[in-house]
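Quick log. Single chain, no ligands specified.
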Amino acid sequence: MAFEGLSSRLQEITRKLRGKARISESDLKEMLREVKLALLEADVNYKIVKEFTAKIQEKALGQDVMKSLTPGQQVIKIVKDEIVELLGGTESKINFTPNPPTIIMLVGLQGSGKTTTAGKLANILRKQGKKPLLVACDIYRPAAIKQLQVVGAQLNIPVYSNETSKDVVHIAKQAINVAISKLNDVVILDTAGRLHIDDELMQELKNVKANVKPHEILLVVDSMTGQDAVNVAQSFNEAVGIDGIILTKLDGDTRGGAALSVKKVTGKPIKFAATGEKLSDIEVFNPERMTSRILGMGDVLSIIEKAEEAITEEEAEKLEKQLRKNELDLDDYLTQIRQIKKMGSFSSILKMIPGMNKFKDIDIDDKEFVKIEAMICSMTKQEKRNVKLLNASRRIRIAKGSGTTVQDINKFIKSFEMTQKMMKQMKSNKGGMKNMMKNMNMNDLKNFKM
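-> predicted structure:
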């Protein structure tokens, strides 16, 4: 998970501060030392770490903090604000030309995930109301054109290619003419990469830039390469000139050093982050929301946006009515699982919920939900409506039909009954979710699957 190591360290540091009624200079020094170690372990550039901690110290030693009624919270706010600034300050969007098509050129090293990212970018822009055209400009890597065509077919997004030409500038110009004739308002050029930066690669990119004049040059970098990603970004920016960065494999980067260093080093914003293998696993990079996730403060706005994409208003109203009547059955449960899966992995969604970071022992395996789907699909309509019908012989039948065990069935039914109980508590408790979380049994929560 992205920033996992850094996140747990910083959350522990802020937890210690939160309850302090007074912060001395020695407390501050100890906290800064821990922050410095956490950032260095996360593979953040040393100069950036030094500047970062110096800024926090300067602001935290101010009279406003020392005289504050809640100095611990004030210091946490300073840390949060500085991380937001380090990640870019504000969300940086694509600059669309008023005279379409907007031309976006993707550049980067081979293996950084450019071709898949081209598809992901086209997908997210289409959701914003655009009509993209993907262009295969990688004429060197075997099967590069075919890979882009497969990606385009999966998304139902058109792909332009010319396998007879070896002139990338010519291919790009032809694609733009096709886009104009087909009314595509965005053209995404998937250019060639190399295993290392060389003059030939850079010259080709400079030729495309000079002749095609792309409105956006976005560098695709593998965030798991840490400081190497930052060095690559710096080299591409100096040689070609980039307008922004797309970080790939952010879900697999437990340290986060690239994300925390690249903006400061290059001066160019991170515009998108790819957070999984699916073609829908990409999001606009928002420094404020990402910082909240790192510090365990949740990211409710992102959950709402994902939910709006995955769940229709009609489905939400139907579920609300059933919850009000305490009539949640296994068909509803299955519908919700499938809808939430569209939003991303369960573990990533859980991390966006404020307060859930304190339950560190919860282990959610997304593969478990494949089992649950199989179990529910092996039940009769009556069994789905009333789990009390599930006696021993029925459970054996369901286990055989779903390729699971009776123990799996028992565990799932127990968690489902717990869900029903939680829904009743939320309806009856005035404190709602807050009181429910406060009174929740930790051992029950570890076994809870939803």
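The first strand starts at residue 102 and ends at 107.
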